[in-house]
Amino acid sequence: MTTSWTEEPLPHNTYEDPTHRPPLVTGGHTNHSITERVCSIVENPPTKAWYVAFAISFSVLGLLGLMIGYLVITGTGVWGVNNPVGWGYAIINFVFWVGIGHAGTLISAILFLCRQKWRTGINRAAEAMTIFAVICAGTFPGIHVGRAWFAYWMFPLPNQMEMWPNFRSPLLWDVFAVSTYFTISLLFWYMGMIPDLATLRDRAKHPLRRFAYGLLSIGWSGSNRQWHVYERAYLILAALATPLVLSVHSVVSFDFAVAQLPGWHTTILPPYFVAGAIFSGFAMVVTLLVPCRHYFNLKDIITMRHLENMNKVIMLTGMIVGYAYATEFFIAWYGGNKTETFAFINRAFGPYGWSYWIMVSCNVISPQIFWFKKARTNLVIMFIVSIFVNIGMWFERFVIVISSLANDFLPSSWGYYRPTMIDVGTFVGSFGLFFTLFLLFCRFLPFIAMAEVKATMSEQRHAAHRDGHDGTGAPAHGSDQSAKPAGAAV
Amino acid sequence: MSGDRKGRDLWRSLDEVANTPEFKRFVEQEFPNHAPELLNQKSRRHFLKVMGASVALAGMGTMSGCVRWPEEKIHPFTSRPDGRLPGVPVEYATSFEVDGVARGVLAKSFDGRPIKIEGNPQHPTSLGAADSLTQASVLGLYDPARSRFVTHGGEKKTWSDVTALVSEIQATQGRGVHVLCESTSSETLTALRSELSGKLPLLTAAHWHVYSPVSRDNERLGCYHAFGSAARPQYNLDRTDVIVSFDEDFLQNHPNSVQYTRDFARRRRPENGKLSRLYSVEGNFSLTGSNADARLPVRPKDVPRVLARVIQSLSALGIKGAPPAVATLAGENIGTEHDAATLNDFVENVAGDLIAARGRGAVMVGPAQPAGVHALAAWLNQALSNAGNSVEYIADPNGARIPSGDAIDNLSKSLAAGEVEYLIVLGGNPVYNAPKGTNFSDGLTKVKKASIHLSQYADETSRKCTWHLPAAHYLESWGDAYAWDGTHTVAQPLLQAMYGGKSLIEFVGMLAGKTESAHDLMKAALTAKHGQSFDWTQALHDGFVAGSAPDKGRMTVGTNWHGALTEVAGRVSTEFDVVFVPDSSVYDGRFSNNGWLQEQPDPMTKIAWDNAALISPHDATKLGIPTTNAMGDTTRPMLDVTVAGTTVPIVAFVMPGIAKGTVVLPLGYGRALTGRRVAGATSYNAYDLGGGGFDVYPLRTSADFQGNGVGGSVRKGSGTYELATTQDHHALEEGTGPGNVFTDYDLDGESKRRNRHNLRVVDEQELAADSDAVKELAPHVPHRNSLWKEFEYKGNKWGMTIDLTSCTGCGACVTACTAENNVGVTGKDEVAYGREMHWIRIDRYFQGEDRDNPQVAHQPVTCQQCENAPCEQVCPVGATMHSAEGLNDMVYNRCIGTRYCSNNCPYKVRRFNYFNNHRHASRQEEMAYNPDVTVRHRGVMEKCTFCVQRINKAKIESKNEGAKITDGAFTTACAQTCPAEAITFGDLNDPEARVTQLQTKNNRAYEMLEDINTKPRLQYLAKVRNPKS
């Protein structure tokens, strides 16, 4: 804790040596030291920094509550939405948060299926981020409707009038897509946490803690049979979650793609949205983990290699997004539809052109610096770029939602959208919700998937002593439930 | 309502009524009588009777303890009056008089509450249509800011105090009594005035002043000069081929605009034969100018010069005998706005058309032009044989009165000289609107004994007068007046005066010592006027005295007018010509507190809630004012307009089409006292909702009343002011900017024709040469095939067409819709933010290369009721659904307000209640709601329903009668009131229906945004212009 967050122990584990796989955990850790390191975050009393951060986040969450209360009491008119711009910050924020909520499940499910072992260091925090981002996202559709007290009508609830929602509406698909995604993500996150929760239970000194973690770890004993069932279930959930990663943002994009509006009505939106979501999700993971690994002393577990890998993904998805922007323009021209051509010219050079260029500079230009390894492995640069990407992706949604609505088919109906302080307050407030939940997560749940990290360590050791015998694979501490027995299926 | 309830004419609950001794006695008696019978259980009938009473009384007992519903006022009838069915509206014919001209109207009354004003279909100048001001007048009835009490020096008094005051006045024999009356053509008042001269013999005609800030005195005087007697021109526009309007806005600022619009529009349908051609020469960009086929914007002072040049051209074509002043005028320089060639072409075209259409032309001159010019027009119409054919004249029903400007001058002189002991101001608001230089307000303080103001509002004048008497609204009064064509039109009350006000007739009757009721006075006056054969009941039923319009005589133009014309010559224009026009919403200021009118955008500028100084882009550039605003920027710079030493700061609005060197100032705004809470009234005030505008009366001098024009200077002022416009920009203006993408929307992209996928405009010659000219403007439509079998409409299938050639853009449909459908008033800030609630709007597009003289097209847009409705499929809760009759129904109960439907509507006709838009409405104004239409709460989307309540009413009636609904048996509110008959509504499943004929057979019919395959059930008929080729 004495070094600054920008300092990094050298040499990195980012070398690409075909003869020798770089270790995913550095610092000569044993299974026990991993347990100690991770559990200490939860078990030691919170630091002053945590209290300060929590106080700020919680206050901002209070702001969100005030904003929502004022909104519901007064009317949607407190926001800047108008005619023709019926959707404003609320929908932008919704898409923004859902997008952020993409990285977690992608890391835990798709990278798991692809046997990307480096995911183990970051998947727990990323999944937590996913859950909280989806919670933030879920707030908005509920409050953005004119009569928030009837928002539940969007669910297909059986009723005596036999009245059902309109299954043709993309908003309804959204309800299903997001709620399914949330459910699966939550299950996946929780299930993956069970062995680590059991470790915490076993180490807990206070009966209340023991009880709480005991309840959460639902009787995990670390038996071979349990590990076997657990691994199977994890695999199945990963397989279930994988299509959801792609579907949820595709469905979110249908809100726009299915509509008539020039600028919305394009078939490119689903892949473009998914790429953008992964892009923003990874950026948010980087934003969160760069400080966290410092403050929680996890630089050995979330190593530079992890960060570099994420930066590579950011660069790739950033280029996909940039390609999508270009394709949209090309098709708008090539398609010969004048309203669509206009919509795109207007996007870049119309009244909201400034937002378009913020988006392009943040999303397309800023990640290009990651072509350089020096930049990829520089904490300051990656942190700044990740913030840029977060900003850029928020503006991408702003551009899509606002510029298309403000200037559509009939010039007589064109309008201008200007957010109010309530809009801004609600948006800022949603960060309060997010960080409050995230800080609570840091304090009470294992930040790192200990069991999975240890599994990669044992593999490393096996690899290092390919011909030798296994002397260190056994649990170093009798109560360490998260240490997988040797030979357990991965 | 009132009576023996101890002064309490309204009661809050049944408990309150139950405290009366009668009721207590009833309760005491009722039970002892019936209880034994109940115990005996003799009959089921008795049992039910007693049970009913018990339940009712039990309910009453618990009501005070457990109130769950808002308490309501109930006025039960003990017996139902004849001909009255609860919940069935009744229509009464009555009349609405503005500045001495009556508009025949039908007032729809619902359970005793007038809720809607419509045109009287039998009245010759209305024919069922009504303009915005007339329709919105019903809201004025319920205005909570109306005064309720007689006041004297600010203290509350009663009408019996007024009786004492009247006796005091009567005792003077009229010495020192002056009356200032609004223009009126009431025959009853004329009769009363002769009675009054018996009571007050010294109140001579010279002491009876008639003043209105907006008048047509110059026209009357001009006719007087020309014919030797005061007359009114009557244009038979349905028989006119060439109309040349010199500063005359006959489509809007004219008392007969409704009839003129109808007649004009009938000649603007290519299917009916050759179109008429409209030329317009004006300084303002009026609604008439926007409908002109050719328009020449010139300074108002140059208008007679253009007329003179036309006459000079005509003299070469054989029209001789013009007085020498014409040559002088024609020789005068006409600004520098137009090059000689443009000017000559215009003049030659007008002259050529006029000579070709001898007897079928009309030369009109506007009321702001001096009398001499009107006389010249009368001469020209006679010389062209138009007089007696397309232009006729009738004697002015009240022709002898002194022009308003002189009348107020005379009174002001008397006031200043201290000759006035009693001043009785009957209506009007002279303190606010008297011309500058009369110092009327100061003079008022010199009235020796009492100044009395009879007015609906305790306004600026009331505050300066010693007495204020509340006046009755026209829907509360008996009255009569002449329509523009001289039809004697009668007014009858629909309800008792809500606030105890008295009508003009009642108060003058009081002065004259009459004890008869207004009804009797009016009946006597009308009988005296129309002879014994006069049928009072029939006149009340019809709303006018049938056949009372005078014969349109042919009058002969003399030569006495030459002098008046000579005065017109040699006028010098100063830096700016200042034009005062009555505002499209508040008129002369009298409708300031009317929310419907304030919310309704001006048809040309689209400004709501304010007025602004309108200047041309050319002058704006010269003054250093930006000609365009950034998207969403509602602030505009201020100007300082100076006339004769008085400077008024007013916001600038750059309006293409205003003549260079002209500044147009709409009257009627900036009223400091409007709608302030009157003692005891719990009111909202329209200005609480923003706006207010600028008072420009301080700039108006008596010279302006005589049409001599006011010169002034305009400077860039300091600061900015926010203006709420419903169309942010000069939409579709040619030139640079993103809107330009839309300018050429045809397939080859080469055509210079101004065609767009939403608005199609062709010239008559093009359409004549190629009957598919409109179809050829269609965008590329890939296919119109459906993937599934489309729904078959077995019953009715409602559809609409809007004829863009007929539509003049007046906005009467917007008011009709507001009144019919309880459309909320949102206020200035909300309008500025694009949250106005109008279900039908009129899109105004500028066209043409010349920013200082563009053409305009008006396009009413309402829900297109698409077959493939984009709104329907995106609503997650199914709150907007397709009906079996093809309507896109809105289910307000089900709507949760996602606004997705509005986003997906390509026509942007859906309106969302961002707030409770009825929160401003007072209890009184709530009475103006149409009970057949749900009042939407906040958070709910709404839109045009094709007046589904009217559809259902017609269906129920047809079902009861067992007959099919005949075409035209009912129509939507907008179609009903459209003076231009531009809107046709009907059943598309009826092959004979007019709407079906138009949609299937008319070669101008097209769908807006046809290419996105929404298959709208509303079609437009393309706009056809008729320029001289």
Features:
heterodimer, A: 490 residues, mainly alpha, Formate dehydrogenase/DMSO reductase fold, 16 helices, 0% strand, globular, disordered C terminus, B: 1029 residues, alpha/beta, Rossmann fold, Dimethylsulfoxide Reductase, domain 2, 5 domains, seven-stranded mixed sheet, six-stranded mixed sheet, 33 helices, 18% strand, disordered N terminus
Give a verbal description of the structure.
The complex is a heterodimer of chains A (490) and B (1029). Chain A is mainly alpha-helical and 490 residues long. Chain A has one domain: Formate dehydrogenase/DMSO reductase fold (Up-down Bundle). Chain A contains 16 helices and no strands. Chain A has helices spanning 31-43, 48-74, 89-100, 103-113, 123-144, 170-203, 207-216, 224-257, 269-295, 304-334, 338-349, 353-365, 373-376, 379-406, 421-444, 450-464. In chain A, α1 (31-43) runs antiparallel to α16 (450-464), α10 (304-334) crosses α11 (338-349) and α11 (338-349) crosses α12 (353-365). Chain A is globular, with a radius of gyration of 24 Å. Chain A starts with 30 loop residues before the first helix and ends in a 26-residue tail after the last helix. Chain B is an alpha/beta fold. Chain B has 5 domains: 14-63, no CATH class; 150-214 and 403-488 and 497-529, Rossmann fold; 217-395, Dimethylsulfoxide Reductase, domain 2 (3-Layer(aba) Sandwich), CATH 3.40.228; 574-725, Barwin-like endoglucanases; 753-781 and 799-1025, Alpha-Beta Plaits (2-Layer Sandwich). Helix content of chain B is 29%, strand content 18%. Chain B has a 7-stranded mixed beta sheet. In chain B, α13 packs across α21 (562-568). Chain B is globular, with a radius of gyration of 30 Å. At the A-B interface, α6 and α11 of A face β29, α28, α29 and β33 of B.
Short description:
By secondary structure, chain A is mostly helical. Chain A has helices at 31-43, 48-74, 89-100, 103-113, 123-144, 170-203, 207-216, 224-257, 269-295, 304-334, 338-349, 353-365, 373-376, 379-406, 421-444, 450-464. Chain B is of the alpha/beta class.
